[in-house]
Specification:
There is one protein chain. This protein is an alpha/beta fold and 158 residues long. It has a domain of 97 residues: 3-Layer(aba) Sandwich (Rossmann fold). The protein contains five helices and seven strands. A seven-stranded parallel β-sheet has the order 3-2-1-4-5-6-7, with helices on one face. Helix 4 links the parallel strand 4 and strand 5. Helix 3 crosses helix 4. The radius of gyration is 15 Å and the shape is globular.
Length: 158
Amino acid sequence: MKKADKKLKVCFAASSGGHFDQLMMLDPLMDKYDSFILTEKTGYEVSTKNHKTYFLKQINRKEKLWVLNMFQITLKSFWIFMMEGPEAVVCTGVLAMVPMCLLCKLFRKKVIYIESFAKSESPTETGKLLYKFADNFYIQWKKMLDIFPRASYLGGIY
């Protein structure tokens, strides 16, 4: 099979909660590609609508061992990256998803970041970091162009 005949492999990455809810709004887009989801493992059930899903440890940068946890997440993200071989990552944040985004960038794959809908006045820490690396950076509030002038505004994801 020629490369042109295959569907593009895309990683859709988001932490738990609202970031994951925003990511799942892209479900019609996921169906157009050979997609898989990367998210955090939580204590509650999440619906991934039959998409292949990988879970990472939930992380909080205020925890004492967050650096060690981040190292573990980076190793698992690398394993997933090597197993799946995504051509692009679409990410709605946050911290646990940064390693996959940076791995994609390191291996010259496309990084697409969507800043959180909840952030209408100030950026997320992840957004500030990935703005420097993302091939496409989207905001959901027009006034965020003041903070991210190279971003694209297409409206809200909801």
